[in-house]
Amino acid sequence: MTPPDVTVVTAVYNTMPYLTRCLTSLIEQTIGRDRLEVVAVDDGSTDGSGRELDRFARLYPGTVKVIHQPNSGGPAAPSNRGLEHATGRYVFFIGADDYLGPEALERLVAAADRLDSDVVLGRTVGVNSRYIHQAIFESTEPDVDLFDSALPWSLSNTKLFRRELIERHGLRYPEDMPVGSDQPFTIEACVHARRISVLADYDYYYAVRRLNARNITYKSRHLERLRCAEELVHFVARLVEPGKRRDAVLLRHFTLEVAKLLENDFLRLNRDTQDGVRVGVRKLAQEYLTDDIRDRLPIESRVRLAAARYGDLDDLLAVIRQDAQQGIPPAVVDGDRWYAGYPGFREPRLGIPDPWFEITDTVPDWLARFDTVSAAYEGGRTGAPALVVTARSPRPDLPTVTSGIQLSAGDLAGATLAVEADATGTTVRSRIPLKRVLAAIAPGGELRVVQAQVSAFGATGSAALRGPRQSAPLRTVVRHGSRLYLFTSTTNHKGQLVIAVAPVTPRRLMARLRRRLPLGGK
Predict the structure, then answer these.
(1) What would the pLDDT profile of 327-346 be if each residue is shown by its tens digit?
(2) How far is residue 76 from each of residues 97, 157, 179, 262, 493, measured CA to CA in Å?
(3) Please, which residues have CB within 8 angstroms of residue 47's CB and are 6 or more apart in sequence?
């Protein structure tokens, strides 16, 4: 019997009703069911997901295989179980709450055959404001390198893998990682692959953010995340020799998995947990955070990692509180060098080297740092809907040292209404038209960070606005054509002002009515 061209493996745990759309998108693939095998592993679901899998297996007995097992606590074990039963020339992994474009598998397999690729990435887009790093999908590339591209920022397993590569190197998911277990699998596959290709010509994969946000990644706790970050960093260190190549991958892990442990929500943890996280981060930084990685980190992450590495818990808390509660720290100018004046800068007791605080090469970005004073929706039914944002910089000289100041939602510029300086700082007021935002978003909605751009010293800098402190989310509904869209402006986990845009589905509308949520955040 001829093996199928591709086996799709999905680990399933309590993903109804999203699971139905996922499975339907697989069955309806243009590659045809005779070239397709679906191996779905039910990891002890309790919400009817197992029954839905069995229904699809009855309807499509030659295509859908279902395996039931007790809950394992994460996607690694069911993914490995699915690999054991895969017979296709290629293997594709899909999250059970996500779905594919109709031509996805046909295009991916054709590209892998044509280019002789071991790994193929198809463009991924977010649904329900889910953020997807897009740098790797800027253009179609027949051959990319893990160590010299944006690939380290897209290490999920939602790719096409040649099964012979997987079996030759014995690639499997580490089952002791409750979250992030797909990253070691993907990294090792990319290290061993003869060729990795990127397809940016079609929306292949739709990554869905669940409205109830109940999957394991959303729920994971700091100490669990620390353990997974440790596993990832140690895995890369064992796999790749020290040097630029290793740093290219570890930069991603220190920027995301490690630095995210020290974001503003760190302040809400109990002191024992805080110190446990700090000690773990300090060990990773001491052993693996090279000067090359340090110099490429965002300033907020860099300073927090410095505090964890060189200071005690109170030193780290002082740095985080500066961002979360006190506002933008002053810039310290020493000759032709600029530094961010965070707590700990040139503190003899700590002895943190100046480069951890240096911003000389990114002064325009530093000048673009603003705190949000207020954000409010205006217009609505009576006029052109817009988000009006007032933001403030602590620099009173900003209008004189810059040649332009503008606020934007992602890459969509707002209209500047006023720029006013006084003895203590500069205030900017801007209007962001919501209809223009809708004209540019993906069909499933998206998340946009509100940013400031300034032109200074011959360059243009940008920085995300820090969200208003202790502010409840603001919401409004806007019609675009025949559809309604929900706009939510809030402060994200990084403390930034963001706008989430999502189509108003019947399910979302009913949930909204149950909450009796007023329009315009009033």
Answers:
(1) 889 899 999 999 999 999 99
(2) 16, 11, 8, 26, 26
(3) 14, 15, 16
Which alpha helices (H) appear in 289-331, and where do they start and end?
291-296, 299-310, 313-321
Indicate the residue type of 5: D
pLDDT in tens, 19-73: 999 999 999 999 999 999 999 999 999 999 999 999 999 999 999 999 999 999 9
* CA 79/CA 156 separation, integer angstroms: 13
Strand runs labelled E in 184-330 = 196-199, 205-208
Containing H/E element for 90? strand 90-93
Run of H or E including 285: helix 271-288
Q: Name 233's Cβ contacts closer than 8 Å, sequence gap at least 6.
A: 250, 253, 254, 257, 258, 284, 288
Determine the Cα–Cα distance for residues 374 and 521; give it in Å rounded to an integer.
12
Cβ neighbourhood burial of 46 (10 Å; 0-12, 13-18, 19+): exposed
Beta strands in 330-385, from DSSP E residues, in sequence order: 331-334, 337-340, 371-378
Percent of the chain with pLDDT over 90: 75
- 203: tokens are 């929306």
Q: What share of the chain is helix, strand, coil (3-state, %, to 5)?
A: 40, 25, 35
The predicted model scores a pTM of 0.84
